[in-house]
Every structure is written in structure tokens, then in C-alpha cells.
Amino acid sequence: MNLNDKFFLRLIWIVTAIVLVVVIVLKIVPPPATKPSFIYILPHLIGGINAVCSVLLILSLIFIKRKNIQAHKITNVITFILSALFLVFYILFHLYEKDTRYGDIDHNGILSAAELARVGASRMIYFVILITHIMLAVIVLPLILISFLRGFSMQIERHRKIVRWAYPVWLYVAVTGVIVYLMIVPYYNF
Fold it and tell me: Any long-range contacts for 123-131 (C-beta under 8 Å, 24+ apart)?
């Protein structure tokens, strides 16, 4: 590992820590009183970005299996840019809107017994998917950044070693992001 690698690895961990702190702070800090009108389109964009990233990640795997390295690189760069855009939209949305409660049919922020009965076991399924999605989303950011560092610096063997972990986690996070979106969208209060 050279000096450049050490610098970028430190930078990766700093970026990861900053993103984690920002997301935690968004959960604690109350939203501003006024909201921009575009804010309500963001969850739909976020869901769409996750869907596109899921497809692009699968294409990336197909390209590398076929030894089409250029298409693999381009696809991953596009996926990376979209994922960064996702993160910006996610932070922006959660700055203004707090979490939506799964099953809150009347959008009052309180789950009644009738609402809980109506959603039944799907609420537990939602939370299992959501919790694994969130936990792995935290883990995947440094894995993605390290795999990009190694891929672009042509450290192919080291890139392969990290991608063995990063790829399935990134794909899982992207796919479950779509599932979470589809499950929660009926309960948005807009």
C-alpha cells in the first residue's frame, strides 16, 4: 500500500463517518417549518434510482463476466454517480420529512389497532427488509469506495477481493431499496 492509498483510505473512512453522522442527525433534528414543493417528488426519484442501479449492477456483472472491461467500468461509474445522487436526494428529503410509518393509512402519525390489523404480518416483513437494508447500506459505502479506488488504480486482484463482498451487498441494498419504496409509498402523506 502506497502513500496515495493510505490517503484515499483515510478519506473514504472520513466520508463514511460524515455520511453516517448526517443521517443520524437527520433522525434527531426536527424538520424546518416550511418545505419546498419539490420535496415530495424525491421519494419517487429515490425509488427509481435504486431500480436503475439494480439493473446497472446486474449489467456490470454480465459485462465483467464477458471480459468487457470498458463497459463494466462505464456501467459502474454511472451506477456510482446515481448512488451519490440517491444519497443527496435521501438527505434532502429527510431534512424536510421524517420517517413515514408503515401501515399509517390515515396519515395521522399514529397506528391504530385497525391499521395494525389491516397490514398484519406485512409490517414485520417490511421491518426485516428495512433493517437489513439500512444495516447493509451503512456497510456498503466504504466497500464501494474502496472497490472504486482499487479498480481505478488497476489493483485488479485487490479489487476482486473487495468486490466479492461489495457487489452482493450493493445489489442487495439497491434491490431492497426498491422493495422498501414500493411497500412504504402507499403510506406517504402527500
Answer: 126/102, 126/180, 126/183, 126/184, 127/102, 129/176, 129/179, 129/180, 129/183, 130/176, 130/180
